[in-house]
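Dig into these lines:

——
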Amino acid sequence: MDIAQNIINNSEFQVSEFILMGLPGIHEWQAWLSLPMALLYLLALGANLLILITISNEPNLHQPMYQFLSILAVVDIGLSTTSMPKILAILWFDAKAISLAQCFAQIYAINAFMLMESGIFLCMAVDRYVAICYPLQYPFIVTEAFVIKATLSMVLRNGLLTIPVPILAAQRYYCSRNEIDHCLCSNLGVTSLACDDIIINKLYQLVLAWLLAGCDMILVFASYALIIHSVLKLNSAEAISKALSTCSSHLILILFFYTAIILISVTHLAGRRIPLIPVLLNMLHIIIPPSLNPMVYALRMQELKAGIQRVLGLGEYVSRK
C-alpha cells in the first residue's frame, strides 16, 4: 500500500478514484449473486483454516505433502480475501468507489497470489513425482529444507516479478474516465481507462503470464505424464490404484485451475463483444479454487479426512458408527 501511495504522490492523475461498476450488463440484478458469493467466501475461509489447524495439530500430517497443502491454504485465504470483501461491499452497500492506492495494491495482490498458487501446484506435482517415481529416494530428496527452499523461491519469484504490474499501471495517465466494468481492479481493466499508450502494460502482463504460469503449467503436466507412465509399468492393479489415488486430488484441482486461466485468457479476446463472460470468469476464479481445494483434499485424502474428524470431535462418533 505504501509503495502504491508513493507512486501516486509522484505522479499526476486527473481522477482521484476509480468506480467499480460490477458485472457489465446485469447491474440491476447482480445483488442476487451476493448470497452465493458470501457463502463461497465463508466456505473458503472456514475450510482452509480447518485444513491449517488439522495439519498443525496432527503429528502424522507433518509431511511434505501436507506442508505444501497448508501453504496452499494460506495462499487461498490471501487470494480470496484480497477481493471478496470489496466485491461484497459493492453488491450489498453499493460501495463502488476505490482509491488509486487500494486499486493498485489489489492489482498486485491478485496477480501475486494467483501466481503463487500456480507455483505451489508445481511444488506439489514435483513432490508426487518423486514420491511415486523414486519412492526409496523420496525421504532424502523431499526434506523439510526442500519444502522451505521451494516455498521461499515461489514467494520471492512471484512477489518480485509481480511488482512492475502495479507500478506500470500507476505510471499511466488517467485523464477522464474512471468507471471500471468489473467487481475488482484487474490490471487490463484499469489500464484500459488510461489516455496514453498501454502497450508496455499488455506486453508485461502477457510475458508474466507465459513466463511464470505457462512454465508452471507445462512442468506440472510433464510431471503427471511421467507419473502416469511410471505407474502403468506396475504389474499390480492394486498398486496402480493406490499410486493414482495419492495424486488424483492434485490433478483434479490443477486441471480446474489451469483450465479456468485458459478460458479467462480466451474470453478476454472477445471481451468487447461479450464483456460479462471474462469478468464473471475472473471473479469466480478468485473464489471457487479457494473454496474447492480444501473440500477435494478433505474427501480424497483419508489421513487428512480422519484428522479433520478428530479436530471437529467426530472421531469417536465415526469409529462407533
About this structure: The first helix runs from residue 2 to 9. The longest strand covers residues 17-20. The beta strands are 17-20, 97-99, 179-180. Confidence is low (pLDDT under 50) at residues 9-13.
